[in-house]
Specification:
The structure is a single chain. With 141 residues, the chain is α+β, with helices and mostly antiparallel strands. It is built from six helices and four strands, in the order H-H-H-H-E-E-H-H-E-E. The chain has one domain. The strands form two sheets. It has a two-stranded antiparallel sheet. The chain has a two-stranded antiparallel sheet with strand order 3-4. The relative contact order is 0.13.
């Protein structure tokens, strides 16, 4: 099963807008990239889909969303720009300038399924402070 994309450019267009011919070509590659990333992050995802443990529509939705996020990035990657004429300040912020696909926490939750803290034995407000590690680091898991 490995090697096919979970989503197609048509799936991306259905969730966003019609794609240009150039965007369709890019979307095909990004769909394969996103699918490879899903398989790397969630080994056995194909088997979960085949067995019915994971709804195949979830994989399509997540994959298409990953591709859309990459395509939404402006061509130059600049998401924010500020200029001041005196004393000559200029600033730019970049958002995914390489147009790579990535998973969000929501994507991961969709693939893994919602698992309330009570089942795992953890509470969402548990914190651990790491002592003697420079500034106080708090991890909220």
């Amino acid at each position: 099963m490995a090697g096919y994309a979970f989503a197609t450019p048509d799936d991306v267009a259905a969730r966003w807008r019609p794609l240009t011919a150039a965007e369709t070509v890019i979307a095909e590659t990004l769909c394969l990239d996103a699918s490879a990333l899903l398989r790397a992050r969630f080994p056995g995802i194909d088997g979960r889909i085949t067995s019915g443990d994971l709804d195949p529509y979830v994989a399509v939705m997540v994959c298409a969303g990953m591709v859309k996020r990459a395509l939404v990035t402006p061509d130059d990657g600049v998401s924010q720009e500020a200029s001041t004429s005196g004393p000559f300040t200029r600033s730019q912020s970049f958002a995914n300038p390489m147009r790579t696909v990535f998973l969000t926490a929501a994507d991961t939750l969709l693939i893994l399924g919602y698992q309330p803290g009570a089942i795992t034995g953890k509470y969402t407000n548990d914190t651990v402070r790491v002592e003697n590690s420079g500034p106080a680091y708090v991890y909220g898991f």
